[in-house]
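Help wanted!
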Amino acid sequence: MPELPEVETIARALKYGGRDAPSIVGRTIDRVDLLWERTLETPSPTEFHKRVPGQIITDVYRRAKYLVLKLSRDTMLIHLRMSGDILVASGIDIIGSHPRLVLYFLDDWHMTFTDTRKFGRVWLLTNPERVFAKLGPEPFDSSLTSTKFHQLLQRRKRQIKPLLMDQTFLAGMGNIYTDEALFKSQIHPRTKANTLSKVQATDLLKNIRSVLNTGIQHNGASIDWVYRGGDFQNKLLVYQRTGEPCPVCYTTIERIIVGQRSTHICPSCQEFPDEPHNT
Ligand SMILES: [Zn+2]
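Answered by r_m:
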């Protein structure tokens, strides 16, 4: 599933050009082809077809795991969910399998949202804050200091891994980068958030930023979904390395289930602080 680094990589390619395609910024949308109506969360397909043509793409960026396309009048949000991807190509042929939405530009180019598993969604809004209001802070937000992060953790009794993946607590984290950040911080994923010390919270925030930055530098991870082009999967320390030796202490990496999600830990580096029977 695409997480912050993968969505950031796609957003940067759409904005600056990349992934074998030019920037889409400055292009005018000539017409749209909605191939799977339920891809559209809002508005109705009729209104979408009426409102989008003629609008110019003025900017592209990422917020949490949303791709944000600023248009001349509206904002289009795309959430890739499990298997979504964005392909930009020229000519009349639609590339990629399972296209759900195609934006045709006035020139020869078009942008296709492909999504095998159909969980991806698109919004067209005059004010994107309607969707963003419930999101937690961005991990790279400079106002998220280690003191602030520790205070936020102090208020929560949840297990740290599901809390970090809760988009209303912190935006952009998913299974891969959470496992990696907790391993680097030597924190067991079932540790209660409010039991973490200031030193642990500081270290955790630093490691969250470091794994996300490394992920972005490697164009994300191409793993268990259709996303292509990234090579961060070769740099993963514990994620999907069950049975392999821990890169720090050589203990065998284990797979456990935390919050119904597959979780990878080194049982020596990430000792559970108390109640090891607790699930
Ligand atoms: Zn270890």
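OP: Thanks! One thing I noticed: The CA atoms of residues 133 and 251 lie 43 Å apart.
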